[in-house]
Amino acid sequence: MLQRQTAAVVGASGYAGGELVRLLSEHPAFDVQVLAAGSKAGRPVTDVHPGLTDRAHDVFADTDAAALAGVDVVFLALPHGHSGAVAAALPDDTVVVDLGADHRLRDPADWQAYYGSPEHPGTWEYGLPELPGARDRIRGARRVAVPGCYATAITLSLWPLLAAGVVEESQLVVVAASGTSGAGRTASEALLATEVMGSMKAYKVGGVHQHTPEIEQALRTAGATAPRLSFTPLLAPMPRGILATSSAPVDADVTADDLRALLTKAYADEPFVRVLAEGDWPVTAATTGANTALLQVARDDHAGRAVVVTAIDNLQKGAAGQAVQCANLMLGLPEDAGLSVLGVAP
What we know:
This protein has helices at 15-25, 45-48, 65-68, 83-88, 108-115, 134-139, 149-163, 193-196, 211-221, 256-266, 316-330, and strands at 5-10, 30-36, 73-76, 95-98, 125-126, 143-145, 172-178, 201-202, 229-235, 242-249, 273-275, 293-300, 305-312. It has 346 residues and is an alpha/beta fold. The chain has two domains: 5-146 and 317-330, NAD(P)-binding Rossmann-like Domain (Rossmann fold, 3-Layer(aba) Sandwich); 150-314, Dihydrodipicolinate Reductase, domain 2 (2-Layer Sandwich). It has a seven-stranded mixed beta sheet with strand order 8-9-7-10-13-12-11. Helix 1 crosses helix 11 and helix 7 runs parallel beside helix 9 (211-221).
């Protein structure tokens, strides 16, 4: 029997927040006591998340620091730029897991350049357990910043090859497609079904996507010296999922088998990262509802590049699932408690 832990979710009405509530509601150790939702305070939870039928009698609450301070762990599932003020109002000994970007970046200049805010909220432990040494650091932390969804998929793709020194770190190229839930729940004409269905488009092209400095920072943590990333994101006509294709020039004497061996060794003991059998390629549907990253690698002999394809569910390993994974570590629970490794496709 696991020791019970009380939890609060701030931003519970959003897509990531709703997924987080779903996971915590089925978690063997968590009792969710506060569901805060800002502008939706006072509304029944099932008005917004009809699938959460066990919350049929609950309503969203206002974000109240006093109520939040009374629980064991606070999850912040807020838009970028909104977590810092809430976290600052909480006691220092409160365990906090931030799904937003406010506390990911170390360099205030990166925060200012990519998020447009002059006030950097500060840097917390980076919550990607699969990075070298990260798991122990997360276990010892009281505050953890969960990586962005694109950052998770791309960092998992590249760090083992960069750490081994077999690819050129200054010429990293990534094209990645995300489902529409990655843009959040705020109404937008660009996300109307009529605009999205049957079409794909690029956005934030030319090195301006906010995950760019985060990915380079994470790759430096894994051993790269000066990684340089060209990242092009795409909006795909699906609700959830990310498919990332990452490539870099590879040393001439490194074979496809060598690349596969590096990824296999890096993730051999990881519960949520799977290198697929040779010839099998990741598909986003296979990760739906699972806190799993699926990887495959090839050597492009024609171009002399290593190519890694990775699929994740952006609301699971890219957000809520990873937040629960980190909270499990921080609170001394089994890392895989309340999380699935198997997708629900079709």
